[in-house]
Amino acid sequence: MSDRPSGWYDDPENPDLLRYWDGILWSDRTMPKVKPGLDQSRIGDAKQQWEEEEARRRAAQVGAQPPAGSPRQPLQPYQSGDRDPFRRDAGQQPPQQPHQPGQSPYGQPYAPYAQRIGKTTPDGEPTAAWWRRLVAYILDYLLIAGVALVIALPWVRPWMDDFSGWYGDVMDAAREGRSQPPMPDSLLQLPWQYPLIMLGLFLVYEIALVSWRGQTLGKMALGIRVRGTGSTARPALNAVAVRSLVKGIPFIGGLVPLVGSLGSLFGLIDGLLPLGDKNAQSLHDKAAKTYVVPRNPKVPSYGQGPYGQPPSGR
Q1: pTM of whole model > 0.70?
Q2: DSSP character for 294?
Q3: Which member of 25, 152, 224, 308 lies 3.0 to 4.6 Å from 128 by CB, making a disulfide possible if both were Cys?
Q4: What percent of the chain has pLDDT over 90?
């Protein structure tokens, strides 16, 4: 038995081949000693090219050294300090575009951003979603109505007793198969003290909170706020007063018999108008020149913010 370990050895029959020795016998497996086409391989050309470019770059730096005693000039971006020798634009300064207000540093306007976020104020701030305004109004209305009912309970209790008696008669008539009794005229109109108290509470509530924080409790819960025209801050007191009076017309209509339906119609139009208005303004917003916007609006991550100022980083 041979002591030669298994492996590839010169073929005893053909000196241009290698034959595999399995440790006991020569196998039928052979392979050429030199890989075909190896003399045409370009392995190493990239390294050689890099070395040549590196040598030229260093030679250029040596030739550009300032005279002894002169201050050393700092390297500029994309110039002779570039570490990437394969860049064709190494040593060239990218063109500088003049920065225009309302555009990103790359000259891209904010029109695509405005299209993505939907309706905006005239200066580009996104407006609040309509459903958020609706839910905030409902929350505020329920809060004011509940407090007003407690305050006006001495005047409202007789009306509630009359309504309870009439409703009982209706249920009895339904069980006995009789015709429904007519509704008393006293039930057609709530006691005037209740809508008056609601109007007073509404005005105090709206004017105080919006002028103080730019938000009512409902708007705080829904993450929206009221702002003025010339600034993103909360509106001035006179604008808040006008806004609250126009918004409170449905409450005022409840004080006058047979006018409450007109007040309700005004409230419906006022509430639906933001859906079709380009700046999402209601009638009370247009009267006071105010807008309802998100509390923390999202701004683009590049260039300037939507108000013509750099993003605050919030």
Answers
A1: no
A2: E
A3: 224
A4: 33
